[in-house]
Amino acid sequence: MTIDVETARHISTLARLKIPEDQLPSVANDLSKILAWVGMLDELDVTGIEPLANVNDGHLGWREQDVVTDGGQAQAVLANAPSQKADFFTVPKVVE
After folding, report:
1. Three-state SS at 4
2. Has residue 58 got a pLDDT over 80?
């Protein structure tokens, strides 16, 4: 499929791109090359390959092993606080 200058102009309007008139033939040629490359994918034999709805469908096993082991040290953390009340940092009021 080839893209002519008029189609490239229409695509640029839909995409809200300001493409100068003298560059439209180059853009049309580039879009035609992109469509030709994508068209080559039709030649691939994909029988037996499951469609992929999301690249993250795989299982990230390493996240299951991510466990916090050094919690429960509120007093050690609060020792660095410039101001504290009970087990919380106190900060100046920002919104009146």
Report:
1. coil
2. no
